[in-house]
């Protein structure tokens, strides 16, 4: 009686699960492929660890270190092989070059150096079976060979991934175990010493590498956070400017509405068409005010309410300076007795520039004497804020300036079409100079990206 072939699963039935053994075999093959790829492909470009260092001597330091190692281990290894083991100079020279010359590659290609040193050390151990005294000589790893190999393992741990590092250490353990089992008559064996010390060196190298990676990621994250903080400051300042402009424009639009609505009552003899035209002007002004309030609602943060007080101007700079003096910052104000009629945008921007400049002095140079000067030549308004060196240089509220306080000044100067000049002074102080035109500026067209 013949057995019938296995029946195919009915259509729509779930696939049969694969045996657990097949899954383990597939996982083992996949891991072996990944290990082989890691051992044959370095995880970093062939550049030294300090290639991006600022100082030239730091960039040359890895090359100097491997040159010193090679100059030490080449003669020492050759001397040990010829004198202690009695090996001929020719074979000893070849074996010395194979075991120590790859040290010169540790600065930029440590994994490739390991591929040369590891087989050379195994071949050297097999060759020493003919020369080594079973009772007196160290085998399979002579002292220079062992120390040289430890430096190779350290370099690999500093540059390669954890999987590759563990694989290198595992292959070293296997080679040491096989040689130990093949040379049981050797009383001074070092087969177990190399894996033990290699584990210590590789752990040290891995810790240093991961610490460096963590510091690099932290620096990158700080750079990103700083850029995001600057962008957020810019957006907040633009939103604030938009709210202030709303108040300025809303005032003029309200005046237009009142004038258009009251024109038929103030001016006698207007035709019906003229009255309708004034009514259309008033309706358009009201519609514009409604749209501006809707836009302001979008710009305002959630839960924030609009300010009830009018926007400040240069008429309130004296109060601002007095409040700053009471806060402990010596400040002097030079303001002309009479200023020309200022556009409201310029008036508000000048006040905010002085306010932000004084706030920066309090944050970064507490106690510094500050001089504020506001002048006008009829075409431009100049705002100058200069502070001396801090009287308390060791106690700034913000020891490292981020420059975010200047973002609002630049935005306001750009809004009015003026110029802003800021920078440190030779005596340690700081200078802020804004030049604002008194005539409306034409908005600049955005540049093509």
From TrEMBL:
Residues 237-302 form the Signal transduction histidine kinase subgroup 3 dimerisation and phosphoacceptor domain. Residues 349-439 form the Histidine kinase/HSP90-like ATPase domain. Residues 1-18 have a biased composition (Pro residues). It catalyses: ATP + protein L-histidine = ADP + protein N-phospho-L-histidine. InterPro entries: HATPase_C_sf (IPR036890), HATPase_dom (IPR003594), Sensor_HK_TwoCompSys (IPR050482), Sig_transdc_His_kin_sub3_dim/P (IPR011712). Pfam families: HATPase_c (PF02518), HisKA_3 (PF07730). The keyword Transmembrane applies. One of its GO terms (molecular function) is kinase activity. The chain crosses the membrane at residues 60-78, 138-158, 165-183, 189-208. Keywords: ATP-binding, Kinase, Membrane, Nucleotide-binding, Phosphoprotein, Transferase, Transmembrane, Transmembrane helix, Two-component regulatory system. Its EC number is 2.7.13.3. Residues 1-23 are annotated as: Disordered. This is histidine kinase.
């Amino acid at each position: 009686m013949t057995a019938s072939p296995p029946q195919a699963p009915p259509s729509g039935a779930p696939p049969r699960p694969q045996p657990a053994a097949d899954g383990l075999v597939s996982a083992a093959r996949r891991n072996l492929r990944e290990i082989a790829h890691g051992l044959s492909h370095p995880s970093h470009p062939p550049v030294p660890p300090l290639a991006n260092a600022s100082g030239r001597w730091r960039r040359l330091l890895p090359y100097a270190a491997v040159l010193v190692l090679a100059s030490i281990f080449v003669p020492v290894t050759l001397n040990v092989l010829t004198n202690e083991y009695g090996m001929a100079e020719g074979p000893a020279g070849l074996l010395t070059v194979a075991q120590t010359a790859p040290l010169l590659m540790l600065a930029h290609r440590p994994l490739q150096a390991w591929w040369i040193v590891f087989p050379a050390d195994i071949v050297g151990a097999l060759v020493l079976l003919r020369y080594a005294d079973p009772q007196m000589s160290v085998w399979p790893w002579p002292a220079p060979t062992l120390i040289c190999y430890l430096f190779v393992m350290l370099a690999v741990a500093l540059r390669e991934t954890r999987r590759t590092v563990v694989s290198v250490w595992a292959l070293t353990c296997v080679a040491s175990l096989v040689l130990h089992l093949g040379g049981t008559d050797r009383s001074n064996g070092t087969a177990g010493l190399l894996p033990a010390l290699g584990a210590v060196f590789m752990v040290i190298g891995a810790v240093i590498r991961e610490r460096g990676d963590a510091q690099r990621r932290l620096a990158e994250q700080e750079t990103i956070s700083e850029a995001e903080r600057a962008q957020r400051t810019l957006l907040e300042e633009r939103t604030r400017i938009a709210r202030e402009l709303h108040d300025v424009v809303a005032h003029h639009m309200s005046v237009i509405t009142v004038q258009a609505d009251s024109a038929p009552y103030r001016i006698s003899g207007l035709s019906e068409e003229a009255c309708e035209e004034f009514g259309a002007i008033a309706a358009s002004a009201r519609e514009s005010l409604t749209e501006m309030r809707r836009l302001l609602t979008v710009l305002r943060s959630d839960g924030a309410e609009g300010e009830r007080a009018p926007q400040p101007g240069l008429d309130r700079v004296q109060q601002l300076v007095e409040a700053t003096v009471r806060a402990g910052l010596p400040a002097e104000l030079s303001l002309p007795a009479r200023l020309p009629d200022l556009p409201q945008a310029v008036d508000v921007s000048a006040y905010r520039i002085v306010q932000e400049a004084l706030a920066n002095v309090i944050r970064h140079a507490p106690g510094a004497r500050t001089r504020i000067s506001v002048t006008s030549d009829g075409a431009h308004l100049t705002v100058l804020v200069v502070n001396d060196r801090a009287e308390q240089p060791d106690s700034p509220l913000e020891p490292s300036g981020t420059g975010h306080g200047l973002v609002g000044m630049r935005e306001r100067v750009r809004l009015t079409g003026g110029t802003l000049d800021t920078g440190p002074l030779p005596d340690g102080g700081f200078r802020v100079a804004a030049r604002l035109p008194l005539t409306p500026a034409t908005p600049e067209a955005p540049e093509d990206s």
